[in-house]
Amino acid sequence: MTVDRRWRISLRVLALGYLALLLLVPVGLIFFRTFEHGVMGVWESITTPAAIHAFWLTIEVTAIAVPLNTLFGIVMAIALARGNWRGKGLVNALIDLPFAVSPVVIGLSLILVYGVNGWLGGALADAGIQVIFSVPGIVLATIFVSLPFVVREVTPVLREIGDEQEQAAATLGAGGWTTFRRITLPAIRWGVAYGVILSVARCIGEFGAVSVVSGKISGQTETLTLLVEKRFANFDLAGAYAASALLALIALGTLLAMTMIKPRREEGDA
Amino acid sequence: MISVTGVTKRFGDYTALDDVSLEVPDGSLTALLGPSGSGKSTLLRIIGGLESPDAGRVVIHGEDQTSVAPQRRGIGFVFQHYAAFKHMTVRDNVAFGLTVRKRPKAEVAAKVDELLEIVGLAGYQKRYPSQLSGGQRQRMALARALAVEPKVLLLDEPFGALDAKVRADLREWLRKLHEEVHVTTLLVTHDQEEAMSIADQIAVMDHSRIEQVGTPRELYDRPETPFVMRFLGPVTQLGEALVRPHDIALSVDARPGSFEAQVARVVHLGFEVRAELVLGDGEEIAVQLTRGEADELEIAVGDIVHVRSTVLPRALAGGAAREPEPDALSA
């Protein structure tokens, strides 16, 4: 028993130490450094016009990307879990592409398609729409990198609940939309919520793909992550820490929301 | 009346139903009985519109429903695993079909309370399915199916997921419910005892076809194929004939048509006594006796006895004759 206990305790120390070194200490240090010289400086550096713009741009991009991906994710999850169509396996594999490919590569590929000399970019530019080095490009890149979350969260839930409840609803006279709204959606709601939160976190934190397509124009196409990187590169360490702390706060808020719904999700609807 | 004509269904290379025809009389409780994989659930799902047949027709109350969506067939369907709407209360589950039809609230509430009373779940309105036992969930599912006043009620192994005691109770309960509600009911089961005790008509299925249709008594007394005979109760092979263990007589001396056998085991089951015998050719058979008969014979392990069938041999060797003359069978 004692050996077991010692073993258990050392495993715990190891796991917690690992977490602390890799996650808690760096994040904690950011907050420490941020507030090292008082709150006023921090407030000033996150209320500069560039910082405010970056904050709202990040929120705006997230507010467009997450609903679109949620809609797409639910429809695609139903198609994957319930449908039986040709090419399903291929589409299923393609959905993971944003996870498999480096965000920088995603950014570059968007430039190849939508850049001025790109496949579609020329036509769009003639129509007066600039995608690359502009907000639409940032939105596109963000949608791309956060695409799989909702699909991947909802599909297994749909498979697990099976289609008997949906069939029962049909025999009781419910049409497709009524069945979705009253039976399917409530059954997958925690899966959807979890997917949305993961998507939000990813959208807010995305750097690689956005950095390639945005052009990093201060006050125009600069998101929060880009602002952090710029300040850091310009030796404005205090400013970088402050912006990082803001990012970390948003991320912590999302995490908190996640842990709040998580117990309900695990409790399930037995 | 449900009338199924020439229904065939294939899943890839597998033929689940092969030219099946069946009539379910109005107001009857008919059982579709067969081993798993015999096609009985597929037939039920085709009648309910949850699967579509490759060939054949489904007519319910004189209307061709073959290509009608399940929503508009006027059926009630009960699933083996209840298919309870887990995020809804018992009340909302039962009310579902009525709210989909946008019935007035007061009417829905009254109907739900009435049905919950009938299925013995009065007072459970605000519970969730997870707070009910399996038997209660299935009764809720039945109330839900009955709420829309279906023309026919289709039950797919409704008691299959319940333990033996609850299953027997619910079986009894369903029989009584059927006498009250009197909706034409088709029930799928693999349990012959369940089918025999509950149904007024049984259709026995095997290998994607219907083997025989009849009352429980007809099927037990006059099976048309060896499969039906074996499926409806225990059988023993005596010479060329298939015999039920209670249709075998024992005697000390040889009689015409009797076989010599040695007693291998005697099991006393209260009023009934089961004797296990070994025939001359090494074949083992089981014989069912009353306690009186066994005492009279004073059979003991090792005794040599003579066994014979007390009924005329049944003309069902081979099973090739799917529709034999009824006269040839009635002994």
Task: Please tag this protein with its features.
heterodimer; A: about 270 residues; mainly alpha; 14 helices; disordered C terminus; B: about 325 residues; alpha+beta; six-stranded mixed sheet; five-stranded antiparallel sheet; 10 helices; elongated
Distance between the termini of chain B: 32 Å
Provide a count of the helices of chain A.
14
What portion of residues of chain B belong to β-strands? 25-35%
Please give the alpha-carbon distance between the first and last residues of chain A.
35 Å
Shape of chain B: elongated
Q: Per DSSP, what share of the residues of chain A sits in E-state strands of 2 or more residues? A: under 5%
Largest sheet properties of chain B? 6 strands, mixed
Whole-number average pLDDT of chain B?
89
Shape of chain A: globular
> Percent helix among the residues of chain A?
over 70%
Secondary-structure element pattern of chain A, one letter each: HHHHHHHHHHHHHH
Low-confidence stretches of chain A: 265-270
Task: Please state the CA-atom Rg of chain B, rounded to the nearest Å.
Answer: 24 Å
